[in-house]
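Amino acid chain
________________
===
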Amino acid sequence: MALMKKLLVVFCLLASASFAEASDVILDAEASGAISEQIYFLEEDGRHALVYTTSRSDYSQYNMWFQNREGYETEDFVKDFLYIYPDDYTWDTASKDGYTLLKLPGKNFAGLERIDLEAGLQVTEDGVYNFNNRRDKEKTPDGHYGLWNSPGNFKKIAYSWVFPINLEPFEYKANRKGEWVRRHNTITYYGSNVNDLEFQIIYRPSSHAIYEALRKKLENEKQIKILQEATRVKITVAATVLYPSGIAVLSDRGKAVLSKVAKTLKDHKNINIIVEGHTDNVPISSKLVSTFATNWELASSRSINIVHFLIEKGIEESRFESRAFSFQRPIASNKTVEGKAKNRRIELLIEENSRK
């Protein structure tokens, strides 16, 4: 019969916990080690995730260690948890200096929590997300880091990311030998007999190719800003690029700019284009009030005329939505000349959808 040992087993598993331990354990030495999974269900904003963590073993008890925080009561440590198993846990605030322990009975545990990825996340100007689970490079007093187990290694571990439709994995790697598998929009690392795991997950919006194409096409145009957001690409164009003051008829330069946009987008059949008209808060002049009663009519006419022009250039009509906001969505102060100029703008929002 295999040798029986008494072990203290520690895990760094839950995303919000510093680490966890299985204590007062008597088990078969050949059966020691945990089989664990951690799954990140990434949200559309790319900055938050639901994280499911589970571990199965022969250990009789788990302690989750949380580093003490000023003003925190015990339940504050699990306020973002949606699920904890077993649910008959207790708290220990005295035995470990600087830490609060959540004590879970049983050989298995599971937790589901919503976390902010900010501590390990960097986002570039062109909208590429770079997550590292050990960005702070800190180690525990006994030298462990990342996703870890002690003493001994993880017997088996799976580490997965499930991406929403608007985001896609671009590059992913681990510091330990293992197998990466991609299925649809999910990536998983499978490791055996590994420890101190550091992961780098790089992902980007699925509209990134459109963003890059537009940026290249419009790179020499002034007063135009292209922004890659998590769920869309946004083009902001100063109104003076497209229209003379107080007018809703496209200028020659405006037509040239929009022609470049149409050429880039017309072959993308899985996008919607929202055209928004924005103005400053200056009332319509007496000379134009018979044409545009208020800034609402001016903003609406400008948005609709852009839609018509892009349709004429070959983009499918069903892809469009026109919006007008008058001066109700300023991006700068309307108290200055510079601010008013920034507020007079057209925004084109390019969003992917499931239609082909």
